[in-house]
Amino acid sequence: MTSYEEAILTAKALSGKKGLDIQVIEIGDISVLADYMVIATGTSSTHVKALSDEVEYKLDEAGVSVSHIEGYRSNSWILLDYIDVLVNVFSDEARSFYDLDRLWQDGKPVDLTGIVD
To answer: Is 85 exposed, middle or buried (0-12, 13-18, 19+ CB in 10 A)?
Structure first.
């Protein structure tokens, strides 16, 4: 599975669990961290955890294991590191505070039309 396919599967998993403002940003040309950054918002700490659990489940089902998880005990931000794809699931307040959308604005946004609701 390519990193693009991982990022799209992640976006679909987040959308399937009603994640909000899902963004996939291609960052491979501007960073050595990963090829794609996926950002989504949950409506509560429980929703944030459910979203990250769904991503982990769907990618594991596709044969892709998470390398590292940060913040799972947090109430506001969980990072799933899939090496080539970084997944950030935030509460609304945390997303505004950390503003990764602005931080990675030099990346190329992936058009998710027809992929997410």
So the answer is: buried
**Cα separation, 99 vs 56, whole angstroms:** 23
pTM: 0.95
| H helical segments located in the chain | 3-16, 45-61, 92-98, 100-103
- The DSSP 8-state label assigned to residue 112 in this structure reads -
* 40 touches 20 (CB < 8 A): yes
| Number of CB atoms found within 10 A of residue 105's CB | 10
Task: Name beta bridge partners: 39.
Answer: 23, 88
The string of pLDDT tens digits covering residues 2-45 is 999 999 999 999 999 999 999 999 999 999 999 999 999 999 99
Question: How many CB atoms neighbour CB 78 within 10 A?
Answer: 26
Cβ contact 41:20 at 8 Å: yes
Residue type, 8: I
